[in-house]
Amino acid sequence: MASSVLNLFKSCRPFTSIRFSSLPKSQFRIQFPLRPGKETQSRRCFTTLSSLTDGGASISGGKELWLHNTMSRKKEMFKPKVEGKVGMYVCGVTAYDLSHIGHARVYVTFDVLLRYLKHLGYEVSYVRNFTDVDDKIIARANELGEDPISLSRRFCEEFNRDMEQLQCLDPSVQPRVSDHIPQIIDLIKQILDNGYAYKVDGDIYFSVDKFPTYGKLSGRKLEDNRAGERVAVDTRKKHPADFALWKTAKEGEPFWESPWGRGRPGWHIECSAMSAAYLGYSFDIHGGGMDLVFPHHENEIAQSCAACDSSNISYWIHNGFVTVDSEKMSKSLGNFFTIRQVIDLYHPLALRLFLMGTHYRSPINYSDFLLESASERIFYIYQTLHDCESVLGEKDSTFGNDSVPSDILTTINTFHSEFVASMSDDLLTPVTLAAMSEPLKTINDLIHTRKGKKQARREESLKALETTIRDVLTILGLMPTSYSEVLEQLKEKALKRAGLEEEDVLQRVQERTDARKNKEYERSDAIRKDLASVGIALMDSPEGTTWRPAIPLALQEAVTTTP
Predict the structure, then answer these.
(1) Cβ atoms within 10 A of the Cβ of 339, count?
(2) Cα angle for residues 35, 41, 45 (degrees, 5° grid)
(3) Phi, psi values for residue 214, rounded to 5°
(4) Sign of CA dihedral 403, 407, 413, 416
(5) Contact call for residues 141 and 133 (beta carbons, < 8 A)
(6) Which of 243, 231, 235, 236 is nearest to 196 (CA)?
(7) What's the distance, Cα to Cα, between the start and end of the chain in Å?
(8) What are the residues whose beta carbons fall under 8 Å from the beta carbon of 95, sequence distance 6 or more?
(9) Residue 88 in contact with residue 125, Cβ under 8 Å?
(10) What is the number of alpha carbons within 13 Å of residue 433 lying toward its C-beta?
(11) Which end of the chain is less crowded, N or C, counting CB atoms within 10 A of the terminal residue's CB?
C-alpha cells in the first residue's frame, strides 16, 4: 500500500484492507476524541480529522465566513473543528450517463466554496465520491450489454472531463463505491451490532424507529416519510421508511461476498462509509443538491450516528435546482441538457458564469437568453482585460500603491470590500459579479475616452485595476489561461450558434462598408440588423468595423414581448 495511505490511517485501525481509487494530495493524521463524561459503548468509530502539522496556515486577515446550515435553517459563522483545516465531503454523481447542467451547478457551487476557503488560507481536504454500484447503472449496462462497473468507470472519466472544462479544481480524493466494499460491510456490521438494523432473507435494513431524531435535517415527521428512493416498497420491512443497507444479489447483477451472503450495498450507506474513511465521523462540511436532503442525507446521518454516537457534521450545505419551465431538471424527467450539449454551443466559462449569476441556494431557470447574457458578459470582461493588457504591452508594470491615483485606489478598495462582504455572506456570487462592473468601466474609460487617455499615471492605474480583477476571477474560477485565446473561442461559439463562418461575417461587413460609402443607409442598417438578429454585433470605430458576440436581437425581442 502506498505510503500516503499508510500515513492517512497511522493513528486509527481501518475497517479492513482497503484499495483506493485515488489518493489524497495531502497527508494528515487522525485521532478520535471521546465525548467527555460519555459512557463508552460497544462501538468502533472511524476517527475525526485533526491538524496536518503543528502551527498550520493562518487564515487570511481573520475574515469571517457565514454559511447557511440546512440543519439549523440559518446562516452560521464558519468555524472549523481544527484551526486552519477543513474537511469537506460532497456527494458525487451516479455515473451511468453524461452529466447534465444540474450536476454542473452542484460542483461549480462547491468549487467556489473550495476556492474561497483556500483564499482565506484554509487547507482543505475535499472528498467527492462516485457512485458506481446502483440500480440505474445496472439497468443501463443491461441495455447496452456492458459490464456495470466498466460502464460506470467510463462515465466517471467523462464527468472528470466536464469538470476540467468548467475549471473545477480536483478533489483531494474521489473514492468509488466498488473500491470500498470492505469499509461498507464493516460499517453495516457496526450498525447491526449496535441494534439499529435487522436482517430479512439476506437483506439488511436500517430501522428508523430505533433512531428517535430521524428527520431532524429535513424537518419531516416519520409518519410523513415516503418509503424510499430508487426502489419499490418492500412489505417485509418493519416500517415503510426503513431503508436497505445491503441487498441480496440478483441474477445478472454485480455482487460481493459478505457475512450475509452475496450482495451489494444500498444507496445511502456508501457515503457514510467513504466520508468516514477519509475524513472521520466528525468533519466540517457535507454538501450536495437540495434533492439529497431527504432521503439521502437524512439516512446518512442516521447510519453514521448509529455506527458511532460521536458522529457530527458541523455544516450541511445544499444548492438549489436548475429548473426548466419551473420544473427540476433531471434525467428521470427527461428535461435535461447535458454539459456537453451546452458547451458545444457556449463556452464552458460562460456556463460557469451563468451558474454563478444566481445565488447557489436559489433555483435557477435554464434559458437560452440567460446563457446568451452570460456569454455576452464574459466576453465583455475578457475583452476589457485584453485591451488593458494590450495597452500595458511589454512595459515594466511594477508599481507601488503610492503611484496609483487616489480615485483609482478608492475604486479598487471599494470593489475589494464588496467582494469580501458578498463572498463572506454565504457566497453571494451575483453581488461579487455585479461589483466588478465599476472597475471594468474605469478600465474602459482609461483606454477609450479622450479624458482617460490623458489621465496622469494611466498605466499604473490600468495595471492595478487589471491585477485586482484578475485575482478575483482566479478565486471565482473564471480566469482563463489567455484573454486573446478565450475571446477567439467565444467568437467561434457565437458563429456556431449563428450558423455562420467568420468569412460570412466579414463579407457582410464589407458589403455594409460599401453601402455606407454609396450612402445606401437603409441597406447598411439592414445588414447590421440581420447580423444582430443572430447574435453578431458590429462595432464601428475610426480604425474600421469589427464584430463581437451579442444576445441575438430576435431573442431579446422574444423576452421583451413575453408577458
Answers:
(1) 24
(2) 70
(3) -60, 125
(4) negative
(5) no
(6) 243
(7) 63
(8) 130, 131, 132, 137, 152, 153, 155, 156, 159
(9) yes
(10) 22
(11) C
DSSP count for the chain of H helices, then E strands: 19, 17
CA distance 562 to 558: 6
- Find, among 442, 331, 307, 329, the residue nearest to 385 by Cα: 442
pLDDT at position 52 is: 27
Q: Would you tell me how many other CB atoms lie within 10 Å of the CB of residue 221?
A: 9
Taking each helix axis as running N to C, give the angle between helix 553-561 and helix 521-533, from 0 to 180 degrees, rounded to the nearest 10. Answer: 70
Residue corresponding to grid cell 458578498? 422
Q: Which three cell numbers stand for residue 338?
A: 447535458
**C-alpha cell read off for 370:** 440567460
Three-class SS string for 479-547? CCCCHHHHHHHHHHHHHHHHCCCHHHHHHHHHHHHHHHHCCCHHHHHHHHHHHHHCCEEEEEECCEEEE
Q: How far apart are CA 48 and CA 82, in angstroms?
A: 10
Sequence-ordered alpha helix ranges (H) in 246-367? 269-279, 298-307, 339-345, 348-356
The strand pairing partners of 200, in sequence order, are 203
Report whether 155 contacts 161 (CB < 8 A). no
Q: Please provide the DSSP assignment of 345-409 as one string.
A: HS-HHHHHHHHHTS-TTS-EE--HHHHHHHHHHHHHHHHHHHHHHHHHTTS-----GGGS-HHHH
Tens of pLDDT, residues 309-345: 999 999 999 999 999 867 778 777 778 899 999 999 9
Compute φ and ψ for 369, nearest 5 degrees. Answer: -65, -45
Sign of the alpha-carbon torsion through 85, 91, 96, 99: negative
The per-residue pLDDT for range 426-454, each reduced to its tens digit, is 999 999 999 999 999 999 999 999 999 99
Whole-Å CA distances, 435 to 27, 377, 458, 478: 38, 13, 22, 15
Amino acid at 399: F
For residue 295, cis peptide bond before it (omega within 30 degrees of 0):
yes
DSSP 2-52: -HHHHHHTTTS--SS----SS--SS---EE-PPPTTPPP-S-----EE--S
d(CA 556, CA 563): 13
* Per-residue pLDDT tens over the stretch 171-197: 999 999 999 999 999 999 999 999 999
Per the CB < 8 A criterion, the answer to whether 64 and 39 are in contact is no
Q: With bands split at pLDDT 50, 70 and 90, how would you rate the model's confidence at 198?
A: very high
Pick from 389, 397, 550: which is nearest to 482 by CA? 389
CA gap 385, 239 in Å, rounded: 61
Residue 563: its pLDDT value, please? 60
pLDDT of residue 234: 73
Q: Is the pTM of this model over 0.85?
A: yes
| Cell numbers linked to 427 | 457566497
Which amino acid appears at position 86 of this protein? Answer: V
